[in-house]
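Readers of this paper often ask what the protein records in our data store actually look like. This encoding replaces a full spatial description with a residue-level series of whole-number codes. For reference, a complete record is included directly beneath this paragraph.
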Amino acid sequence: MNPIRKTSARRFRFALVALAPVVASLSLLGVPSGAAEPTLVVYSAQGYDSAAVTAFNHTHPGFSVTLNDNSTGPLLQQIQAEGNNPKWGVLWVDGSTAFAQLDSQGKLVRGWTPKVSFNKLGLANLPKDRSYIPTGLTATGALVWDSSQMTAAQLPKTWADLLKPQYKGELGMNDPAQSGPTYPMIAGLMNSLGHYPTSKNLAHAITAGEQFLLALKKNGLVVNATNGPTLAAIEAHQIKMAIIQSSAGYGTELTTYPKMRVAYLNPVTALPGVIGIDAKAPKSVQSEAKKFITWLLSPAGQHVMKTGDAQGDSLFWPVLNNDAPSNSLIPPLAKVPMQTVNPYVWGAQENKVNAWFESNINNG
């Protein structure tokens, strides 16, 4: 997430894009002129979402896309609260675990993908039932650190190193109930520490991760809601480093704090930007959602994604063949020790793990 725009004041801001002419939309859909115009509502936590919606509306007259821009946690809470009367047409946030949950609940359109050429990253993050689609990739659990407070030689070299007394009170992270990239990071930790799936013991993996988080807390772990306050704590020299999303670190280095750096402990967890369509939306809205997603994965849409938040969420690895990141700060993926976790296994554990985190790490 963009470290500046994902603040608490921003969470409940709705960005409404001007509607296309009613008459044109009604003509396209073949409904009486007195009927209400159907609208595709995009629930999104992406830094470039407003730019993407604006560009799509400008180039696709006859149907309106409206944007509900918020942090991931509140968006998912809103979707659950809407129940069988959803107001969203498309969900577009980072992390596939939430989409796996929605798919298991029958809330996503299945069996469709745009006709594009996904690279290995894209294919690795595309579910078998085609219920959601990756649009880009960052890493969660990246070690974002302040080069004015410590040198590269002083960095921890492994996850276990974070528990050493020399790093007491120096590490921060986000709250998974608020920050979309954080639960996938915790799932990745559990996956790795518990040697799942080779151990075939999910309970053991969850326990291993809980014990590690408790040890981090004992060593002075600082938890903030989202990237903004976590990165601000580094800039204010309250902590020296944090385990958060890679794009947040690169974005801060390019904007407010040039001394920020990004490193990768082994392993970090792949965090796809993911988009899915509401299965309960009218067929006309689903059709327009497919047009929107197809456009996002076209050269024009990818250009907007790479430039719409150039010093924030746009700092991702593409999921399409013959494409490259937008900035040279982003290393070749071959140099990043990245794992992909099964979102259907870990998505089902999200509510339980987040509740445990709130009770034992945030408030324990």
User: Anything to note?
Assistant: The radius of gyration is 20 Å.
